[in-house]
Design a protein that fits this description.
Blueprint lengths: L2 E6 L5 H21 L3 E5 L11 H13 L6 E5 L2 E5 L3 H12 L5 H10 L1 H10 L4 H7 L8 H10 L2 E4 L8 H12 L11 E4 L4 H5 L2 E5 L6 H16 L3 E4 L5 H11 L4 E4 L13 H6 L5 E4 L9 H14 L2 E4 L8 H10 L3 E4 L10 H9 L3 E2 L3 H8 L20 H9 L8 H8 L3 H13 L3 E4 L2 E4 L1 H5 L4
Parallel strand pairs: 1-2, 7-8, 7-11, 8-9, 9-10, 11-12, 12-13
Antiparallel strand pairs: 1-4, 3-4, 5-6, 6-10, 14-15
Helix pairs in contact: 1-2, 3-5, 3-7, 4-5, 8-13, 10-11, 13-14, 17-18, 17-19, 18-19
Family: Belongs to the DprA/Smf family.
Pfam family, one: DNA_processg_A
Protein name: DNA processing protein
Amino acid sequence: MAVGVAVVGGRVLAAVSAAVAAVAVVAAAVSAAAAVPVAVSAAAVPVAAVAVPVVAVVAAVVAVVASGGAAVGLVEVGVGWWVVGCDELRLARAYLSRVAEPPAPALARFVAEVGPVDAARRVRKGDVPESVANQTSARRDDYRAEEDLAEIDRLGGRLVVPEDDEWPEWPFNALTVAAAHGLRCGLAPLAVWVRGTGDLAALAERSVAVVGSRAATGYGQHVAAEFGFGLAEAGVTVVSGAAYGIDGAAHRGALAAGGPTIAVLACGVDIAYPAGHQRLLERIPHHGLVVSEYPPGCRPARYRFITRNRLIAALGEGTVVVEAGRRSGAKNTAASTAALGRVLMAVPGPVTSSTSSGCHDLLRSGEAQPVSSVAEIIESTGRLGVDLVEATRNTEVGLPQGEALRVYEALDLRTGASAEAISIESGVELSRVRALLPELELIDLAQRVDAGWKRSQEGVARGDT
């Protein structure tokens, strides 16, 4: 493992340069002895000319080498830091994720133009275009990159950046394309903070977002839990926002199946929000990930939920709206899903339920397609020609006609009867009754029992009287 030593944020003057050179010599010797590569570099941000405590830095280098690069040592130098065992690019991304409120389009364009390291350096100096300054000036002096990285490491998490293999390139590319077309839901995050054992890119390869109202009905929570369980059981990652109601039910369903789930938060991943879901948010990292574009310590805010919703839409190959009122935040996620070109689905509900009115609006407008089962969700979002729903027998079969209808009507709902009794009741010849009963059984309208024949539950469920 390579170990780096860098002066982050300082123009290295003569005294500092000499110290760097001295440290480089010692680090090289230590590196050779320990067989662990050590690199020493200096970045360029103004600092006062100070005497660098070389012995302290060397001690830190030795400690890091001894730990195989696992430790991170910090030695303050004026307004800058000696950082041992940290990646300069990751530090830059950590700083940029805090310096502007997402999605910050001007800052994102600036980072794309000059690169994250140079962008971070210039933002701290204030050497940026006016549009970038408008988004960063309030926080540019609030440099906490090392603290944030140390905190996420303490939580057992990490910062995932676009340069990582774990970055979900395809899902977030949809946000970039949307931004290029001027869509409000567009713009990929500069980095994401994650807690959990899962690989973000791998989990997003086959995933579905399940969202809905916080004030969910029992019907909605039951459907969301069933969907979460069934999708997870099928190896599909369940993405949601960890809110009360539909979100929580979907996460719990996935966890009950022992499958993967991703919770996307509108605050730092170190904050349990809502507080009532603290245990749920503690369980999710063991089966998936808790994700946020906000650094540790960021509190939830109303506008952050709207911003967060675009990530939920992007990380799912499709979105299912289980329940939503006409003004529900889930409809914002639905709008982002449609804008990103993802599959939008909605669950029909009782016409008397206000919590399903938003779903009915989406269905009536043609924006969403109706789904009522896990199989239908997987067919809508899955692999072309592979994840198909098996046709259910009798879906297009109506009630029998003529003599068959008379025989069917003669069957009791609860108790069986002999063919002879059915013949008398229906007025159909016995031989014809004996021929028709197996035909009715084949289309799930009749059922053979010990006492003879009765109507099947399938026939009853179809509303037959």
